[in-house]
Design brief:
This protein is an all-alpha fold. It has one domain. Helices cover about 65% and strands about 0% of the residues. The longest helix is centred in the N-terminal third of the chain and has 17 residues.
Length: about 90
């Protein structure tokens, strides 16, 4: 784990905390945490669950935008922060 990945994880947790009361349901919060945790502890994008975690966050953020619960910019920022928790940047 790098300091950049740890900082991204901190941003994800801050977003969950900021948005939990009004913009995220408990199951959605858990999905975000699970994806961030999976990616944080993955050594490569091919680690078990890593790609699935990214896909789940993409699905969730798309749903939040389509349901008019989040603006695109905020949802994209969350997806980017979750992705930055993992080794994804090495392969982009």
């Amino acid at each position: 784990m790098t300091s950049q990945r740890a900082q991204a994880y901190g941003r994800v947790l801050a977003t969950i905390e900021d948005m939990a009361a009004t913009k995220l349901f408990a199951p959605e919060q858990q999905r975000i945490r699970d994806a961030a945790d999976t990616l944080l502890f993955s050594e490569s994008i091919d680690a078990p669950g890593a790609r699935e975690a990214l896909e789940d966050i993409e699905d969730l953020t798309r749903h939040l935008i389509d349901a008019d619960r989040w603006i695109d910019e905020r949802a994209r920022g969350l997806a980017d922060d979750v992705a930055a928790c993992g080794p994804v940047a090495q392969y982009a």
